[in-house]
Amino acid sequence: METRRTFCAALTALAAGAWLPGCRDKAAPGPGGGAGRLRIAVIPKGTTHEFWKSVHAGAVKASRELDVDIVWKGPLKEDDLKSQIDLVQSFTAQRVSGIVLAPLNDKALVASVNGATRAQIPVVVFDSGLSGGEVVSFVATDNRAAGRLAGGRMVKLLEGKGRIVVLRYQEGSASTREREDGFLEAVKKGGLQVVSDNQYGGATTQTAFAASESVLLARGADKGEIDGVFCPNESTTFGMLLALEKAKLAGKLRFIGFDASDKLVAAVRSGDIDSLVLQDPFKMGHLAVKTLVDKLRGQAVEARIDTGASLADKGNLDAPEIAALLKPDLAPWLGK
Predict the structure, then answer these.
(1) Residue 13 pLDDT more than 90?
(2) Which in 1, 61, 191, 237 has the greatest CB count within 10 A?
């Protein structure tokens, strides 16, 4: 009996003084935060593109500043919708404090997001919007305005005359659809002729390369029948670049892309890409987590937060504000 009393007393003292190793998640608060440590699930569209690595770093920075835990987990590929839906439902079942989500599809994630909200787990959506759904805030680039920025640049480059191809990204992706539509608005208003805007590159460089080859061939790019090309994200931009290089057309067409990687920046320097529309993914990840934590801690938050867009070309690649977007230092946050 004495042994049992001693053992129970030891457990009580341990619980009062410190968490058991590996058990902090069990002590995390229930929905709405509670009195314990906040645990935030951050679910991107994918985990391989450079864009998502910057988002991850920004989320980590926010978690350290705000003294909360984040769990970063997303699909490997940006076409694995089932995986993303399963993740939202799994984190809801685990009763995390809140979810930060970049939806792969603007309609397919609505039910899962509403399920989390009904479970009193607030959701902040970032990067790409939802068609409905009960969310705390939407943190993203003004994608339509960013598309118009690219379209205005194309009109200026072609002096209001020319034939344009738009290689779309993927059906159901709200962010890229808005970029595409904003671009089309601007080039049509500026007098350019759009000869193709109904082809989709898909979620990988490989599928975008195949789609690019097909549309370039179909629209007579090798015969000089295309003057400009626009792509709305990193994978479509790189796939199109590879197709243009293979066809020996790189640098011969006006080419505007979206987002950045080392290879895309090198193509801007060489003149194979005229310009890239840049978002601020680090800021996006940081503000998305911060907004959710503010909400959990009872502060007022904005329903829509614009993280901005810039245009990078050969003339401003080394400007400090552009260089910071092109090559953010992620090592302090990701350890790489």
Answers:
(1) no
(2) 237
